[in-house]
Amino acid sequence: MGFMDDMSKRISAFQADVEKSIMGSKKKCGHVLGSKSDNSATASGSGHKLSESTTEPKAQSTIVRVRFTEAGTLGMTVSRGEKNLPQVTTVHREGVAEKAGICKGDIVTTLNGEEIDTFKKCMDILKKGERPLEIVFSRALSEKEARRVAQAKAALERDGAWNRRVASRPQGGKLANTRNPVSSTEEANLSNPETRAAWEAAAQRHAEQTRELGYDPYKPLLTGTSASSQSASRPPPQKKDEGTRLGGNDESKDYDTASTEVQVALQALASSDKGTEAQEACVATLLKLLDNVLNKTDEKFRRVRLANANIQAKILEIEGGLEILIAAGFQLQPDGDETILQLPNNFSRPRCQASYDALSELKSQFASSSS
Q1: Cα 229 to Cα 234: distance, rounded to the nearest angstrom
Q2: Considering the domain boundaries, does residue 200 fall inside one?
């Protein structure tokens, strides 16, 4: 699975959690035009088995769609509310409306595609008993729910913009043009078994040299940074009691996978229009976070609060900043009324190390270009 696909899945799962928290899994809050509970609707969307319902964040309210397919009572009471609008004032216990996730206070806005602007119009349609019946409600969000929805929406928009950037970048894009130890002629003739074997052997030697030296000897730098300065920027020795240690080829694979993902994010960071000062501040903050992860055992260093003003200014506002933490293994998760980045207890140390190494290299290049 690709890096961006994985990230998109994580954010989509988070949005689903937000929607579920808004709908409520077994919330008992709201009335029915009657109280029978043998009516039913068909499930999809937010996870309510007896209703086909979805939620759509919209400013400080959310739109809830419910489709009823069988004849019978709806299990809720609709009364005249503010501005002569139909509002749910009671939801019968164990009724169809409750099982569909309808709550007290919801306002009816549409019935079977027809906009409802008065209480009388709503009641005239409901009394006909038409089925299937699709009702669209408007539900006011609490301050906490509104914040969570806004954070999830912002994360999804950021993910979409990032996917478009990755899709439009030149193939094989890196921080700088790279020169592989394998010649372009060999690459063009990989259909030849002997050439392919030689290419794979050279690629393996290339990866081994990069790991042993701590930098890529075949890759030109953004500036005149020397190999010795890159080597000097490598992180402190790793501790032995934190994170997952994968042995041999597995460890190398984890490191190489993260390196590839980080390079894509670093390309965006290095070309950010925020300016060199903001780029350097982003790199320094990311290095500090990863250094704490690699060298300190306290669990608090594996949590990043996205609501933190410093994190927002130095990481989230710089393109590529959030993606570097995702490449290192951090995961977007809800935490109460906010969103955080959490590194699992069994996180992969090689992934964090690869992200740290790539950031250290970029920091050295920034230092050389300013000297």
Answers
A1: 9
A2: no
Q: What is the widest separation between alpha-carbon atoms in the chain?
A: 81
Spans of the chain, pLDDT less than 70 = 1-60, 142-199, 206, 209-252, 371
Sign of CA dihedral 25, 31, 36, 38: negative
Distance separating alpha carbons of residues 182 and 203, to the nearest angstrom: 7
If asked whether residues 224 and 126 sit together in one domain, one would say no
CA-wise closest residue to 61 among 150, 141, 149, 153: 141
Rg of the chain over all Cα atoms, to the nearest angstrom: 27
Site of tokens 């290049």: 365
Q: Which pLDDT tens digit goes with each residue over 263-274?
A: 888 888 888 888
Domain that holds residue 322: 169-178+219-370
User: What's residue 204's pLDDT?
Assistant: 73
Identity of the residue numbered 76: M
Number of H helices, E strands in the chain: 12, 11
The phi and psi torsions of 59 (rounded to 5 degrees) equal 55, -125
Q: Which residues contact 6 (CB under 8 A, 6 or more apart)?
A: none
